[in-house]
Amino acid sequence: MTDKKYDFGLVGLGVMGRNFILNVADNGFSAFGNDLDEEKVNALIDEGGDTRRVNADVDAAVFVEALSKPRKIMLLVPAGKIVDAVIEKLLPMLDKGDIIIDGGNSFYSDTDRREAYLKEKGVNFFGAGVSGGAKGARKGPSIMPGGNREAYQHVKPIFEAVAAKYEGEPCVAYLGPKSAGNYVKMVHNGIEYGLMQLTSEIYDLLKKAVGLSNEELHKIYSEWNNGRLQSFLVEITSEIFAQKDELTDGDLVDVILDKAKQKGTGKWTSQNAMDLGIPVPTIDIAVSMRQISALRDERIKADHLYKKPVLEAVNKEALIEKAEKALYFAFIMAYAQGMHQLADASAAYGYELNLGEIAKIWRAGCIIRAALLADITKAYQEEPELQNLLLSNAFVPKVRSTVDAARELVSYGATHGIPLPGLSNALTYFDAYTSQRLPLNLIQAQRDYFGSHTYERLDREGTFHTEWEK
């Protein structure tokens, strides 16, 4: 063991952890890893190639002693009790002023709890969302840190070096106090759920309505990725359609089971939006559709019980053009809902979030990176107090020029039994948000009728109750 002190420590040498620590070493910072699995430790040492640059050990005490002060220790372990267990293991060996960074998808309230607990011990703690998958961790992720601002300054040079770059700017920024980083990553994942659902619905529509082959779908999504829909998810979708199956002579996408799994971050986004009173229906339905997908046996039984409408002939080129417009429209709605939730959460939890800065660090490295984020960044930079993207002068023409295509596709899907819940909810959200008058006056009357819950009036101030005639 060398006497050299390493700049950065990382616990958890799975695929994400190993790639992230190698990224740190590639960018000029010496790094030391720790994992209970000796094979993972040895694999990192072998891949690192130079133990002066990157090293690792199974012994936590050796790991802690190897780090320069203040120690900067990142955890890339599964969220939940494991994070607490690692913290408790490290804590007796740490000094005041040392820093622990949770880089996993921890629930934001857990981060708040851990930060308060470690603050009493004199140890700094902050959550840092990391997006980009294993490849991003190795080549440049988007990083979303939040917590103690002063402590972040010690980590800032490392994070800025390893983060993805957009036109030379690192896709990382200090986002705010407490659990701001984990919260932003949670909503990022909620938006991700929405975009994935929308992308899959359009695929389903094009395949069922006009019988497009996977080769045609590959070409269409590739063309879309060269235009305003340019994004990581559209890009990988185009590549998925071109992937052949090694076990059969067919295409891989056609033999993958239609049951989507989830790790909970989309559900957390939806649940917390409910708590805040913020509508995110495109994210909500994306979570629900994964749950419906899990009911495959029931879906197969139900499919035999009910007839689907006969599909009417439709012009293929016209449908493809409308699909591009509708997907663009729905992408805007998904981002608008997520950003709206971030704005209200910032006020409710004291995060002091800068929405323009968040959109800026999402432009590269992360799963929801898209050309659209450059426009979103600009919109919030020009109007920092913007309440919703739909109120942005820059987005009004984008929405106006695409909403009719969304209407036509939702109508076609409803008429012909093709489920388009993400697109439908995006359109409903738009129509409701842009309605000066909604029928909730009747709901208020109903609530007062059966429960004396009172109501307000349009023509005068105050709260009112009526003894309804029976």
Task: Explain the overall architecture.
With 470 residues, the chain is an alpha/beta fold. It has three domains: 8-178, Rossmann fold; 185-433, N-(1-d-carboxylethyl)-l-norvaline Dehydrogenase, domain 2 (Orthogonal Bundle), CATH 1.10.1040.10; 441-470, Single alpha-helices involved in coiled-coils or other helix-helix interfaces. It has helices at residues 15-26, 38-48, 60-65, 81-90, 108-120, 133-139, 149-162, 180-210, 214-225, 232-241, 265-276, 281-293, 296-305, 316-349, 355-361, 372-382, 396-400, 403-416, 421-433, 440-451; strands spanning 8-11, 31-34, 54-57, 72-75, 99-102, 124-131, 142-146, 165-166, 169-170. Helix 8 (180-210) runs antiparallel to helix 14, helix 9 (214-225) packs antiparallel against helix 10 (232-241) and helix 14 crosses helix 18 (403-416).
Task: For the structure shown, list the relevant keywords.
single chain, N-(1-d-carboxylethyl)-l-norvaline Dehydrogenase, domain 2, 470 residues, Single alpha-helices involved in coiled-coils or other helix-helix interfaces, Rossmann fold, two-stranded antiparallel ribbon, 8% strand, 7-stranded mixed sheet, 9 strands, 3 domains, alpha/beta
Q: Got a strand count?
A: 9
Major sheet attributes: 7 strands, mixed
Helical content stands at: 40-55%
User: Could you spell the SSE succession in H and E letters?
Assistant: EHEHEHEHEHEHEHEEHHHHHHHHHHHHH
CATH fold field value of the largest domain:
N-(1-d-carboxylethyl)-l-norvaline Dehydrogenase, domain 2
- Kindly provide the name of the CATH class of the largest domain: Mainly Alpha
* Overall SS class: alpha/beta
Shape: globular
**N→C terminal distance:** 86 Å
- Count of DSSP-assigned helices: 20
Mean pLDDT: 94
| CATH architecture verdict of the largest domain | Orthogonal Bundle
Instruction: Determine the strand fraction and express it as a percent band.
Output: 5-15%
In the predicted model, the low-confidence regions spanning at least 5 consecutive residues are none
Number of domains: 3
Strand order of the largest sheet: 3-2-1-4-5-6-7
Rg over CA atoms: 25 Å
Q: So, the CATH homologous superfamily of the largest domain?
A: N-(1-d-carboxylethyl)-l-norvaline Dehydrogenase, domain 2
